Structure formats: structure tokens, C-alpha cells
Amino acid sequence: MLSRISFHLSPPVRAVVLIWLAWFVILLAYQTVVTQRLQLDRPDYALLWTRTETDFGAQRNKPYLNDPFMNRQVSWDSEFYLSIATVGYDDPAVRAVPLPDGRQLSLNYAFLPLYPTVMRLVAVPLALLNLTPVATATLAGVVVSLLGTLAAMLALYDLTRDTLDDAGGLRAAWYLVVFPSGFFLAQVYTEGLFVGLAFGSLALIRRQRLLAAGMLAALAVWTRAVGGALVLPLALAVWQSARVEGRLALNRRLVAGVIAALLPVAAYLLWNAAYGEPFHLVETNFFGRGMLLIEQSVRAWTLVLNNLGTTVPPTAIYYALEFAGLGLALVACLFTLPRYPGVALFGLAALLVAFTSGIPQSMIRYVLAVPSTYIFLAWLGRHPAFDRAWSTASLLLLGMLTMLFSFDMWVA
């Protein structure tokens, strides 16, 4: 069966699948080997609050992070996805945040429902393996992340092969999985599923399959709120397809496009009606984040810049990567704007939401969702020297960050 499937795949697509397969096997094996070979000093001094969260015994009160099965693929936010997938949002085993009105809300409410819901569905057949519920959900989460990553790689290849040929499309897919924070794509985190849905939507928009693109965009909204930015490329595609000699032409294709552009809006409104209030309460009262907190964000980033030269080395390195990731993604969006306007607009909106969330951290993870980055790198990678240099630097950083995550240290 596998040989027949492989036979029908084009050579570049087959190459993408094989790169994906080798990548995740090597990455998961590396996480096992590195944690068996050495131990890291604790705690992690990257940020002030990480000192208490990464000390010995810091995970003992987090039952979803203590199951030994695939334990290296879970840390930090994985706790909440596993909880929602196995119990639901109101899980007494998960910490709660006290609100000003005296109520308490589970931290689970800060996380959107699609990823843990898909985990729960995938876990049904995996129950035949007779693992613990947490182990089954962990395996399901990794499977979902990996399949989403494969979809994202194929979408990047499809987006770029017309302008950068097959080799350029392969480079774009490769640069995604070896990006310094690319290991998140193989963990119990939403990144893999989200990039699969978002990049798939963008690839379908480029092919003018707007209704299907709108459906993927709606699902992306239920995975991460920034998926709402896919409205921009959808609306742009509708506008471009509707222009006929300077006038708007009303036809079936235009109506389908308008419906497609409204699907992620409808998805957001449905989610907001069901989970919006508790989501924003937890985000504000515990995580200190919000949407377009421009003044607060500017103050926070300015403070980081002013103190960067006086911080301890772990903090300086952490923020250097944060700024480097933001800078690269911003330059990439501006570079791709003329040829890939919809893709670039989505990336710029995603960067704006991340930068103005109020807290200057996790940028190296958030920029994973900016497809212009890999298109820009694939264009630069036409030169063999750049391709080898970037791959070397990116893989070394990927190894370092993967190791830190595997030891439950803070990455992003």
C-alpha cells in the first residue's frame, strides 16, 4: 500500500514527505538521547519568574506533565491541552486564577478548543494501546501536531514552487521544520496544527479555492485567536477576483468568496460567545496578555531594550533570539509583500498581535506562524553558501532550544 501511495506522489511531494518523516524521527530521538546523556543545572535564569517555575520539584503539582510516556514532548502549556483533552475545561486538577469578583477560573480557559478536541478524537482509536489516559492524549497530541506540520510543509511547497521552482519549494518546507523554534511543531502544542490550517488556507487562496480556504481559516481561529488574521488575505482575494475593468462584478464566485471571508469571522463570534469572557479574564488576570495593548507593550519592550546590556547572560541570549525572530519575520513580510500580498498581510497582522500582546516573551514561537519567513529564506537559499550557513546556524539553535524544552526549561 505504501509503495502504491509513494508511486503516485510527484518526486518533490515525495521528498517533502520523506524530509518530514526523517525530521520528526530524528527530533524525537534527539530529545530522548539528550536527556539521557546529560543533566542541566536548575533553575533557569532566563526571566525573573522562570527561577521558581524551573527549580527542582516545580512540576510535582502538575499531574499532566508527570506521566513518563513521551514526557519529553510535554511541558508548560502542554498541561492545559492534555487537561482539556482528557477532562474538559473545568478540571479541578489544573490551577485556577482568582478573579476580582471572588470567582475562580481554571487556567484552561486561556486556550482555544480545536487542538484538544482533535486530540480527544484521535485518542479514541489509540485507546487500543492500553496506555494511561494522559499518555494516550500525549500520543494523540504529538500525532496531530506532526500531521499539521506535514500539511504546512506541503502548503509552503505549493505556495512557492511557481516562483522559486521545486527546489525553492523544498527549501521553504525544510526551513520551516529546522527553524530554531521548529521543535514546537512536534510537541503537545498548537503550533503544528495551526500552521497546517493557516498555511493550507493561504495555499488554497493562491489557487482561488476560496470556500475551502475559508473553512480552514475558521478552524485556524478555533486553534489560535490570531487565525482571525486570515480574513485579510481572504478579503484581498475576493477584492482581486471581483475587479473587472475597474468595476465589481457580482457573480457566483464572488458570493462564494464573500462567504469564505466571513467564515473565520463567524468562527470567532461563535467562540467568543461560548468562551470569550472566561478566556479574556484568565488572559488578563493571570497571563497579563491582551489584544493590541499598544501602550503597555511599547513600555515593556522599551524596558527590555534599556536593560538588555545589564541583564545576566541567559536573559540577554533569550531576548536576543526574541528580537532576531521578530526582525527576520518583519523583513520577510515586507520583502514578500509585492509578490505574496495576502501571505505578507497575514504575517504582518500576526506579528502585530504578538508584539502588542502586553508581555515581551514567546516571540520566537509566535513567529513560527509567519509563512513569509520561509519564503524569504527560500529565496535567499538559492545561493548554496547561504543555504548551508542558515541551515547550520538554525540547526544549532534548534538543538539548543529543543534540549532546553526537553528538560522543562523556558524557551518561549
How would you describe this protein?
- With 412 residues, this protein is mainly α.
- It has one domain.
- The chain is 66% helix and 2% strand.
- Strands 1-2 form a two-stranded antiparallel sheet. It has a two-stranded antiparallel sheet with strand order 3-4.
- Strand 1 (96-98) and strand 2 (104-106) form a beta hairpin.
- Residues 1-7 have low confidence and may be disordered.
SSE layout:
Layout: H1 2-8, H2 11-37, H3 50-53, H4 78-86, E1 96-98, E2 104-106, H5 114-126, H6 133-177, H7 191-206, H8 210-221, H9 231-242, E3 243-244, E4 247-248, H10 252-287, H11 294-307, H12 313-336, H13 341-355, H14 363-366, H15 372-380, H16 384-406
Helix pairs in contact: 2-6, 2-16, 4-5, 4-6, 5-6, 6-7, 6-15, 7-8, 8-9, 8-10, 9-10, 9-13, 12-13, 12-15
Oligomer: single chain
Q: Can you count the helices? A: 16
Class inferred from helices and paired strands: mainly alpha
The general outline is: globular
Estimate the helix proportion, in percent. Answer: 55-70%
Question: Distance between termini?
Answer: 40 Å
Compute the gyration radius: what is it?
Answer: 21 Å
Number of domains: 1
Extended strand count: 4
Largest beta-sheet details = 2 strands, antiparallel
- Written as H for each helix and E for each strand, in order along the chain, the element string is HHHHEEHHHHHEEHHHHHHH
Percent of residues in β-strands = under 5%
Flag low-confidence runs: 1-7
Mean pLDDT: 94
Major sheet: order of its strands?
1-2
